[in-house]
Design brief:
Elements: H1 2-22, E1 37-39, E2 45-47, E3 55-60, H2 67-78, H3 80-85, E4 88-94, H4 98-108, E5 114-116, H5 121-125, E6 129-132, E7 135-138, E8 142-145, E9 151-155, H6 163-177
Parallel strand pairs: 3-4, 4-5
Antiparallel strand pairs: 1-2, 3-8, 6-7, 8-9
Amino acid sequence: MKVMTVLFMLLILVLWVMRSANASELPSVGQKAPEFSIMDQNGTLQKLSDYQGKWLVLYFYPKDETPGCTTEACAYRDDIHKIQTLGAAVVGVSIDDASSHAEFADKHHLPFPLLADKEGTVSKSYGSERTLLGYKLARRNTFIIDPAGRIAKVYVDVDAGENPQEVIAELRRLQSMH
């Protein structure tokens, strides 16, 4: 019994250390959004400045073709017209490479760019990089960036299926304030 208790406590400690060691600082609401310049699944260079004057939904996800990530991507796909009607664009980011993104986007008919953040630089700059068992992954975080390039809303550890609806409601709220 004592051995099980010690092992359990050790596991809790290891998980806490892993989470703490991976915690990057998230950009705050009102802060200028971190710049990025990175290729998408089609080999097109995507830059934050490309979205100047528009609302941008920048969502980070762990891995192509995993259940939660597929749910989230397809939910954004299904709600893309509502989001575009609100003058916003959607961009997904993970640490997968461009060919993985291309297959994922093609298979699920995703009508938005997926950034191939292989080195994790964009994920890290948005406080969304983590390492799990030696592998870099993006955390499931979402950022709404306003037309001036500032962070308007931060969602941390989002629910994959619900986040697009939350984003739509928040875009409506934010736009009613402008």
